[in-house]
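Why show two proteins at once? Because comparison is the fastest way to build intuition. When a single record is shown, students tend to memorize it. When two are placed side by side, the eye starts asking what differs. So, the first record is below.
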Amino acid sequence: MSYIVTTLENLLQQTAFFNLDWKNYVMIAVACLFLYLAIAKDYEPLLLTPIAFGMLLVNIYPDIMLTIEESSNGVGGLLHYFYLLDEWAILPSLIFMGVGAMTDFGPLIANPKSFLLGAAAQFGIFAAYFGAIALGFNDKAAAAIAIIGGADGPTSIFLAGKLGQTALLGPIAVAAYSYMSLVPIIQPPIMRFFTTEEERKIKMAQLRPVSKLERILFPIIVTIVVCIILPTTAPLVGMLMLGNLFRESGVVRQLADTASNAMMYIVVILLGTSVGATTSAEAFLKLDTIKIVVLGLVAFAFGTTAGVLFGKLMCKLTGGKVNPLIGSAGVSAVPMAARVSQKVGAESDPTNFLLMHAMGPNVAGVIGTAVVAGTFMAIFGV
């Protein structure tokens, strides 16, 4: 009888109930909220579902992120190995290749002025950088936090790793991906506030056709120019342009299909789950985390505002030919931000089609955020 009681006691002691505190349950509740938003509300479920589930797993079983050094048998936790691929910048670079293979750069090539809108939306990054310094973060930590304003999860992970801010990588990555997922909630109120009904109804002229030669030369030229000026951007910009070259060359269809489908989804699973697994209660529920989340939101809001305001300026300068709503797509959440521009424009005029026009600033934002990350690395000599 005593043997049975002892066995049952041992089993009971091994349950999570005896190894978790209230902070873990708070994070479990947050994970369930994210799962609800992903599944019930369809807020970017491809990103939010693996992130939320990784958050759920690590707060029920923290050893799933155990490092090799911390383990008693020399074998780390499953998600620790996924996370190493984030730290080594492998998964973020592969994500960029997939994005390049999936994305049509034609709207940006057809309307090069879109680069200006993409650049304007990076203002939020620099606003957050100085805000982070004011809140007591050192310069490298401030740079890693500020890049959240680009709404680009892979670049946020990449820069945090390169600047040696691995202690902050979890909150930074979760904030960046959360804001990417919540673009349909965060951006529309800002867009409506800074534009008039008449501006939102502006219909833009159809974009000119882009030749195959232009499409092929664009990723090659951008890689040469950007990577010569900022060689540290090569892992991101290079992979983005390589993926797009796969797409546009027409001679490696199998590679383009693999990069944009099977590989992309595998990488999203690994990256999303490992990012979510960095949010253990012990690491996440800190004052610095709250600061990072708030700064990220401020950066994203400032970036959206700057894009819209610059869109209004272009509208004035072109005599009303540019709809300011496409400026909000200058953040690099591809293609969510462009879809939001289309949605808000269609609310004012259902016959208004802004999606392709918004894809120009959207693609420019991806390149712009990578360039800003490279600039920070150059400043700090990384």
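Second record. Ask yourself what differs from the first in the token line.
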Amino acid sequence: MKNLKMYEPADKMITLIKDNYSVLQALGSFGINLGFGDKTVQETCDYNGVDTYTFLAVVNFTINDFTNFEDDEQISVPTLLHYLEASHAYYLDFQLPFIRRELEESLGKDDHLGHLIMRLYDEYAQEIRRHMKYEEKTLFPYVQSLLDGKPMSDYNIETFSKHHEQTDKKLREVKLMIIKYLPSDAHLNNKLTATLYDIYNNEEWLKQHAEVEDHIFAPAIRRLERQTKQQDVSKNISNMVFKGGQDNAETLSERERDVIIAVVQGMQNKEIADHLCISINTVITHRRNIARKLQIHSAAGLTIYAIVNGLVDISSVNL
């Protein structure tokens, strides 16, 4: 049953944990240590260097299925990336081996059906390991490249989303085989029941992990991709203007500057010729020289050049 309370920065961290003990598994992945006393969520996150907003976004999502993150610009991608990387380490290095040890103890040494179930579990472990290692080798480095401002050109978040599938089919099969077909003597039954309970909890954890990636992480990366593209466009325009302008502005003749100003004012070649008292052929020659020197061939590009280099005032330009 969902706890419909939406937790806020001023709530006590201990209250959040008491209400939702499942959050304990997320604390370590965020880098939050136990022993926080009566600190609030905000105080605890600040103390551990964790973005409070992102922490509560994940918590409120996993508790209440709150999923309005498509346009949420407050989500911290570095915090999410650290959380997911640490979650992988937690699951692969601790949870998978822990459940396997429990299964070995619960199934008995001489149970042939138990050996088959162990084989099924090992196949599941291999599958989930491949899945997570793929993300660690492909998705996470891509996200880091976006954060560093040097995005990889051969990957994007949509590629990840299209191939992000559930990987718990074999785990469900392990549960069903144990429940339906595995006879167990009395002294192993309690261990087997406890192991099943842990498997169910892990299944729920894995489902939430995948949903955090789909509903919080992926939208955040899409926003980061859009921002990166916008920055690249701005950078290209700046490079076009300043590289062309600063390197070559001195080589422009006074008449070529006059031609640029006339183009920006919307004049055609004949109008420019009449305005400057030169021939149309001379205007065309000037425009060719301008394009060659500045590597700018459009009126819009010349307008940007003229504004940035002070040839015209932006208020006088009909944009």
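One difference worth noting in the second protein: The chain has a mean pLDDT of 84.
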